[in-house]
Amino acid sequence: MKKHSLTALLLILFWGFGSFCYAQSVVRITQLGADYAAAPPTVSFRVYWDSAPDNIPHLDSVWLFVDYQPIAANGSLGAWTPATLTNPAATAPGTVIAGSLNGRGFYLRGATPTFSSTVTVALDGLSAGDRFNWCAYASDYPPNATEGAGFYELHGTPPFLINGTVTEPTRQYAGCITSLTDRTGCPGLVPASPAISSFIASPDTICVGESVTLEATATGAINYSFNGGQTWIPATASTTTIVFPTHDTAYTVHVANAAGCSATAGPLPVTVYPLPIATFNNPPTTACAGSTVNLTVGDGSGSYCFSQHCSACVHNPYASGNDDPTEYDCLFGSATCTFEVSNSYAVTMPDSGNITVCVRVVNEHGCLDSACVTIAVTPVPAAPVLSGDATQCASSAALSCFGETGYTYQLQNDLTQAVGVPLSGAGAPLNFPITASGAYTVVATDATTSCVVRSNTQAVTVNDLPATPTDASSNTRCEAGTVTFSATAPADCTIDWYDASTGGNIVTDGDGVNSFSPTINASTTYYAQARDNATGCVSDTRLPVTGTVDTKPVITNQPANADVCVGGTVTLSVVAPGATAYQWKDIDGNDVTTGSGGTTANYTTGALTANTAFWVEVSSGACTVKSDEAVVTVNLTPAAPTDASANTRCGAGTVAFSATPPADCAGCTIDWYTDDTGGTTVTGGYR
Predict the structure, then answer these.
(1) Mind listing the pLDDT tens digit for each residue in 105-119?
(2) DSSP-assigned states of every residue in 306-354
(3) Which of 176, 264, 291, 387 is surrounded by the most beta carbons within 10 Å?
(4) Cβ contact 564:589 at 8 Å
(5) Distances (CA, A) of 513 to 217, 340, 482, 484
């Protein structure tokens, strides 16, 4: 018997879109002559799984269908009959499992991406030499959408003739077809594809975090798969699935029926809007009791609703009179709050515990998000008590409070203006000098937590100080007694007299007089301080006024009496320790006008011609003492001596010189001189 060769090639490619039967390709081969040597005849197929060109993944399973049709000697055609699988175990590493699809077919499954297996089928009912038609096709039914597109090859062995040529073709690809090449061969093997009547996404516009329900309705479908552009979402027999897209996404549905035929619908776009920024910007974790914390959220591009007790936010589409998706109400228990454009919120911290602030943010798309922040309250100390007189004078104006250890205290005027420098508490009172009227408080700051607390307000009127008195009197007296002290006070002021420049004792009994006359025993200084008659404020400084008590000088050597010739002068002297001034007087008590030294301790008279007397007034400050009178006797000038002797001798030796005094000058003596005027006395008192 002569063997005729037939070549059967089935090449399958699946890419999973459109409406078709999964990866089906049919080749109809008609026997050309001669008979098979064996009865019943068999046909062997090699099935290949491999990595496809262009990175198309392989299919790891396939159904193989083989039918044959006997041809009688007269050319009549018999019924198409399924072939019988003769090697159910196939060849490793794959498995071949006998199965049935529409009463025929064999299921093959590969174990690895690269796999080939040989399958032999028997053409039962034929005898050696019988002629027949046969048809083979393959499908990846049941559909396996997770495998995506792929391919496999199917080759008949040994090689058969196709169109009279022995052929082992190279790899080819065939798209899925919806009808057989020859409807008379392999009749009824390609079922109809399912029909998708609707595919919807509800809703088709959402905010991040919300869900979308995908729903497809298809006639004859038993499997559904949904794809969002990246991975397939098997829904098996379910017609719906719920997805949570995070960005704009287009969805596709893929359905298949029991025969492996499929249909797709889509893409169906879903718009996903981002959520607004609902993040507090650097909120504090702690804050001081009573302080104000200013919170901000996001970048200010949305609408904001803040609450310390927000229980819910609800959409209010008619808040503006129309269906505005950006209008929301925030429910605060029984109260409501309309969203505002401000992204800031000020909260006042309670005295203790924690406080939680929540915010709801909605953007222009109506997307809503929320956030909360909890702030712990840091306790503050008890407020200090600031005290001081309501009316004070500038020089001594001050306020005080008790300073606790661990705190600093800053005095402020009108709540903002710092006065002086902060003072540190040490468990003792603190004193704050002030110079101006105002409403004062003191702010205590905890050195550890920086929490602050403010005292009560103390209003103070600070009056200006009067000027220091002027025009001090300079009063001096001799010896103990009454002295008048006086000064001039500024307008509307009087003078208080003190015994010291600062502090000291008031010496005028607070009467406020511009002058007073005490009895003093020694030089004394009193101090004049001006006092405002209306405010009682006193000048910052005092004017010193001194009363001087001088001591009388004592004359220890009185001026002595003297004799003088007519026309001669006399020097009179006085000794008076402690004297500071001298004034010589003539016999009539007048200041001397002649001579010299009239204001000194030694006075030389002018030329005298008659008897007279002088005395001196000795002074020390306000004290004067009168000396005794010094009597000056003026004597007449005697005539020149007469009877001069004329004595001569030889050689050196003694010579007697003699003359006779005037006769009317009983008490006269002769003084001898070397010259007729002036010269030097060489003897005196000789007659």
Answers:
(1) 554 554 444 445 555
(2) EESS--EEEE-TTTTSS--TT-EEEEETTEEEE-BS--EEEEE--SSSE
(3) 176
(4) no
(5) 118, 74, 17, 12
Contacts (Cβ under 8 Å, ≥6 apart) of 31: 4, 6, 71, 131, 132, 133, 134
What's the gap between Cα 541 and its chain centre?
Answer: 48
Task: Write the pLDDT tens digit of every residue in 203-252.
Answer: 999 998 889 999 988 887 777 888 865 555 665 556 888 889 999 999 99
- The amino acid that residue 677 corresponds to is T
pLDDT at res. 440: 97
Residues 60-78 have pLDDT tens digits of 455 555 666 666 767 677 7
Q: What is the pLDDT of residues 445-460, one digit of tens each?
A: 999 888 989 999 999 9
Asked whether 475 and 544 are in contact (CB, 8 A), the reply is: no
**Quick one: DSSP state of residue 281?**
S
Contact 203, 273 (CB under 8 A): no
Q: Above 50 in pLDDT, residue 672?
A: yes
**SS3 state at 137:** strand
Q: What does the buried/exposed string (b/e) look like for 538-557 if buried means 16 or more CB atoms within 10 Å of the residue's CB? A: bbebbbebebbbbebbebee
Cα torsion 640, 645, 650, 653: sign: negative
Peptide bond into 142 cis (omega under 30): yes
Q: Give the DSSP H/E element, type plus range, for residue 371.
A: strand 368-378
State both tokens at 166: 């022995």
Taking 60 as the threshold, does the pLDDT of residue 603 lie above it? Answer: yes
Tokens encoding 60? 């790891």
pLDDT of 380 strictly over 60 = yes
Q: CA-to-CA distance for 260 and 16, rounded, in angstroms?
A: 11
Which one-letter DSSP state was computed for residue 51?
P
Please count the helices (runs of H) and the strands (runs of E) in the chain. Answer: 0, 56
Q: Residue 1 pLDDT > 80, yes or no?
A: no
Q: Which two tokens stand for residue 522?
A: 């020694």
Write the pLDDT tens digit of every residue in 77-91. Answer: 777 676 666 654 444
Q: Rounded to the nearest 5°, which phi and psi values hold at 191? A: -75, 170
111, 47 contact by CB (below 8 A): no
Phi, psi of 617 (to 5 degrees): -100, 115
Q: What are phi and psi of 273, to 5 degrees?
A: -90, 145
Mean pLDDT of the chain: 74
Please give the residue that has the higher pLDDT: either 150 or 41.
41
Single-letter amino acid code for the residue at 461 = T
What is the spatial distance between Cα 370 and Cα 361, in angstroms, rounded to a whole number? 6
- Residue labelled with tokens 């619908």: 265
Spatial neighbors of 523 by CB under 8 A, at least 6 apart, are 546, 547, 548, 549
- Out of 20-29, 634-643, 666-675, least confident range: 20-29
Instruction: Please give, one letter per residue, the 3-state secondary structure of 381-394.
Output: CCCCCCECCCEEEC
Cβ atoms 452, 443 nearer than 8 A: yes
Beta bridge partners of 402: 429
Length of the chain: 687
- For residue 397 the two structure tokens come to 């104006």
What's the mean pLDDT in 474-493? 91
Residue with tokens 């705190």: 407
